[in-house]
Specification:
Distance between the termini of chain A: 115 Å
Radius of gyration of chain A: 38 Å
Largest sheet of chain A: 6 strands, antiparallel
Structural class of chain A: alpha+beta
Oligomer: heterodimer
Shape of chain A: globular
Shape of chain B: globular
Largest interface: A-B, 62 and 53 residues
């Protein structure tokens, strides 16, 4: 090929520096020397301006003598250096070092970082379940090639085996997992298999409470004050314990008593819940992606839903906002009563509120059902509930909405139901009145006993000089726990109407609403902040 | 838990409730679509008005498990609808409305007093919309 001298100069001067470098002459320590040489055989040799092939020594002199910039010579120098320096460790040693380093790092992370520990704990429990699930599905679909019915049968066996393990894992993990388990057991109908729903249902009854020592530590650390400074008396046994917090009754020291009733409820958040929230939700999202990617949106919405719930100062602010709004719309305190926040004891983890006496909505429903069951001659409320569930399902399958005759859902199977169907709502109303009257009589008897107890208390007060109000209050609570206190004064139908109305005002006019659930309606712990029960409280208070 | 809704979300809920109480399927579906609600039914991106209306009913009105008649005239069992629908995007007002609405409908059903939330809240929703104007 004939080239002009200028073209050749361009070719050599602008050749990439690595091409100027001939590895065959320097890669003396390379085990792949032969291979390099083979490669070099395929490479066109470097030529000088006259078109003659030049050796490395000549190339170096060419480089130094020509006007090659410093930048272009740096890679050459580096390559020369790397070939001179022998690697200090063999590959095996490097791998061993890497392994030790990773092990130490992971061990330190596991010891010091709670989120990481939590992740390990979660996946240690979940991995066998995930693997087994994958094994069952892959075996059935790819190897045995079974039909969908057989696959479903195998999955049902898998679910029955794994459901108790899942609940055990949730209970071990505590915190947000319990909360999610409770939510899923309630609203998971149609989303989760029935086996899981049944296994998760016991979570609705709360979780084992934490000890008083632990709770008092949290309060003292969070408020910066001792328990003695804050409270005159503090019930060591909580009135409720839920997934993220537990609630105790207490009496404030007079200096903290900013509202007339000194009795308060103190809600204490378990410290690990907020700390581990992110790690927990991330693990859950990953598990959802593996098991049911179609429900990712729901899992993401759970994060959004719960992240504001973990700061009690926000809850206190919202509660104050709700109270003001409800007063503005004229429903507080005439229709509902919202507990006042005790500002002195309000931190991210601890929230004290006014104690309102009353019965929970769940209790009110149970009591009514027991009364009706008794009036219908059924064994207990459960029998009525089963029949009621069937009746309600039929109602929903017919389009749902308002029942034609309020309360006729209670009138169920058997000849009595037929009779009631004939006589319609009047018979239902009559039956309820009968049930209520029976309770009125019981209440009269109870009040006679209570009168006796008050006399005893007053007598004791004279002798022992303690606060009779508190004792009478406890006495009243004892009656309440027996399920017979002032029950006849709760008009459940009216209370529910009020409840729906007030929530409508909150949601549509105020924009701040109480989203706490009656899924925990059995818990006194949640009754303190749930308007669902607050409406009942106002009605259950004797005039 | 105490939740908060923006004025825009409140307006969207109020409009949905009024549309639901009037049994206006087109308007209900339009409000949901305009606010970013997206779902697929049998892997079809175009979910019809009847399906969206039924979903809104579950969130803010009542438990209606009766078979649903799709816009193309096909009658589908509600459980089949549930099995084959995948929600892709859920606006905040639907999420919050569903949470509160579900609780209220649920507790009323437990007490054997099923309700229609849209009917109960219609006057309040209209009041909210009047205030907005």
């Amino acid at each position: 090929m004939i080239t002009t001298p200028n073209q050749r100069a361009l070719t050599n001067d602008y050749r990439h520096p690595l091409l100027l470098f001939n590895p065959s002459s320097v890669a003396v320590h390379s085990p792949k020397k032969q291979a390099s040489n083979d490669i070099n055989m395929c490479r066109p040799p470097a030529t000088n301006n006259e078109g003659k092939t030049i050796k490395l020594q000549d190339q170096r002199s060419t480089l130094s003598s020509s006007s090659v910039s410093f930048c272009t010579s740096v890679p050459v120098l580096l390559a020369n250096l790397s070939s001179i320096i022998r690697p200090p460790y063999s590959l095996r040693r490097v791998l061993l070092l890497l392994f030790v380093f990773s092990f130490v790092s992971l061990a330190s992370l596991y010891t010091c970082h709670r989120g990481f520990r939590r992740t390990i704990q979660f996946w240690r429990g979940m991995t066998p379940l995930v693997l087994k699930y994958k094994y069952v599905t892959i075996k059935a679909e790819k190897f045995d090639r079974v039909n969908p019915e057989e696959l479903e049968r195998r999955l049902n066996i898998y679910r029955e085996q794994t459901a108790p393990k899942l609940v055990e894992l949730i209970l071990n993990m505590k915190g947000i997992y319990v909360k999610l388990g409770q939510v899923m057991s309630t609203v998971g109908q149609g989303l989760l298999p029935q086996v899981y729903l049944d296994a998760l249902r016991p979570l609705q009854n709360g979780v084992p409470p934490r000890s008083y020592a632990e709770i008092s530590n949290i309060i003292e650390e969070s408020t910066g004050k001792s328990m003695e400074e804050l409270f005159l008396q503090f019930d060591e046994v909580p009135i409720g314990s839920a997934s993220i917090a537990q609630v105790h009754r207490a009496t404030l020291r007079p200096s903290h008593s900013t509202i007339p009733p000194k009795r308060v409820v103190v809600k204490v958040q378990y410290p690990e819940v907020a700390q581990l929230f992110d790690a927990d939700l991330s693990n859950l999202e990953l598990a959802t992606r593996l098991f049911s990617p179609e429900y990712m949106e729901i899992t993401k919405s759970l994060r959004k839903r719960h992240e504001n719930e973990l700061d009690f100062t926000k809850e206190a602010a919202n509660l104050i906002h709700v109270t003001r709004d409800m007063q503005r719309y004229g429903v507080e305190p005439s229709l509902v009563r919202i507990p006042r926040v005790i500002y002195d004891i309000c931190t991210k983890d601890v929230l004290a509120m006014e104690y309102l006496e009353g019965i929970s909505l769940g209790d009110a429903i149970d009591l009514e059902q027991r009364r009706v069951a008794k009036a219908l001659g059924m064994h207990d409320g459960d029998e009525l509930k089963t029949a009621l569930a069937t009746k309600m399902r039929k109602h929903f399958e017919n389009g749902g909405g308002v029942a034609n005759n309020e309360g006729d859902m209670m009138m169920l199977s058997g000849n009595r139901a037929k009779l009631i169907n004939v006589f319609g709502p009047s018979a239902a109303a009559l039956l309820r009145t009968y049930a209520l009257l029976k309770d009125e009589i019981e209440n009269v008897i109870l009040s006679v006993f209570k009168f006796g107890s008050m006399i005893r208390i007053n007598w004791m007060k004279d002798r022992h000089n303690f606060d009779s109000v508190e004792v009478i209050h406890d006495d009243a609570m004892m009656i309440s726990n027996n399920g017979k206190k002032r029950t006849s004064r709760v008009n459940l139908g009216r209370a529910l109407k009020t409840l729906v109305h007030v929530h409508g005002i909150q949601l549509l006019l105020s924009g701040v609403y109480n989203g706490e659930s009656c899924i925990h309606k059995e818990h006194f712990a949640l009754f303190i902040r749930s308007l669902l029960t607050i409406s009942l409280c106002s009605r259950s208070t004797p005039r | 838990m105490v939740g908060r809704l923006s004025p825009h979300d409140r307006e969207a809920i109020a409009k949905t409730i009024v549309a639901l109480s009037n049994n206006d399927k087109q308007t209900t579906a339009r409000i949901l679509r305009e606010n970013g609600y997206a779902a697929t039914f049998r892997d079809n991106e175009n979910v019809d008005d009847a399906t969206l209306h039924r979903f809104a009913t579950f969130c803010l009105d009542k438990f209606d498990l009766s078979p649903i008649t799709l816009d193309n005239g096909e009658v589908v069992d509600t459980m089949e609808l549930f099995r084959n629908i995948r929600e892709k995007s859920i606006p905040t007002f639907v999420e919050d409305g569903r949470r509160l609405g579900g609780l209220l409908m649920g507790v009323n059903a437990q007490a054997a007093r099923p309700i229609s939330l849209a009917k109960e809240w219609k006057s309040i929703a209209q009041q909210a919309l009047r205030k907005k104007k």
